[in-house]
Specification:
The complex is a heterodimer of chains A (118) and B (111). Chain A is 0% helix and 50% strand. Chain B starts with a strand and ends with a strand. In chain B, a hairpin with a 7-residue loop joins strand 9 and strand 10. With 111 residues, chain B is mainly β.
Chain lengths: 118, 111
């Protein structure tokens, strides 16, 4: 089945550090990738939609200057949490949809990045 | 009102039991529906898509009622390995097809 790789899986760093998370589709091309955040005991919340070759679309309340998204190729999207603070500590998950096929086909998720800011 | 609502549970059932989860969604224009499974501290994994005609995959049966904006998942002959959180997921309209997740229903299957 389709595989989405996310790296790193776990990050612990000091407040003020910027952290980059990578999301790769390993066996398919993805024109669209999605970035989610999940706080403990809460549902996944969409942060932004990453489109290959164009600017990301951010959900209401998500600061685009804080969460920088780059989707430079059909297999890679990156999320950079700039100047991270403890309240940014969360589980960040990406998903990707194969560019081939109907736009409503299921998305495939990366295995997530657990970010802890001290 | 939340876009996708689920009973958070937990549902504690013995092995071999049949258990059903329900989900309601508020956007009548929603197009696609899925059940995902999420284990603790892991990413969601697609369990099955949900079709208006109802669909079955082994011990799992999903139903969709568009008129009532209601989705269900039935698990028969529960296994210990079925213990997880089950997420009801709905896509919005439009080409981006964003997923909207319910908060999930936690299932614990016991001996």
């Amino acid at each position: 089945g389709a595989v989405v790789s996310q790296h790193p899986s776990w990050v612990i760093c000091k407040s003020g550090t910027s952290v980059k998370i990578e999301c790769r589709s390993l066996d398919f091309q993805a024109t669209t990738m999605f970035w989610y955040r999940q706080f403990p005991k809460q549902s996944l919340m969409l942060m932004a939609t990453s489109n290959e070759g164009s600017k990301a679309t951010y959900e209401q309340g998500v600061e685009k200057d804080k969460f920088l998204i780059n989707h430079a190729s059909l297999t890679l999207s990156t999320l950079t949490v700039t100047s991270a603070h403890p309240e940014d500590s969360s589980f960040y998950i990406c998903s990707a949809r194969n560019k081939v096929g109907h736009s409503n086909q299921p998305q495939h998720f990366g295995d997530g990045t657990r970010l802890s800011i001290l | 009102r939340k876009e996708v609502e689920q009973d958070p549970g937990p549902f504690n059932v013995p092995e071999g039991a049949t258990v059903a989860f329900n989900c309601t969604y508020s956007n009548s224009a929603s197009q696609s529906f899925f059940w995902y499974r999420q284990d603790c501290r892991k990413e969601p994994k697609l369990l099955m898509s949900v079709y208006s005609s109802g669909n079955e995959d082994g011990r799992f049966t999903a139903q969709l009622n568009r008129a009532s904006q209601y989705i269900s998942l039935l698990i028969r002959d529960s296994k210990l390995s079925d213990s997880a959180t089950y997420l009801c997921v709905v896509t919005s309209t439009g080409t981006a097809s964003k997923l909207t997740f319910g908060t999930g229903t936690r299932l614990q299957v016991t001996l």
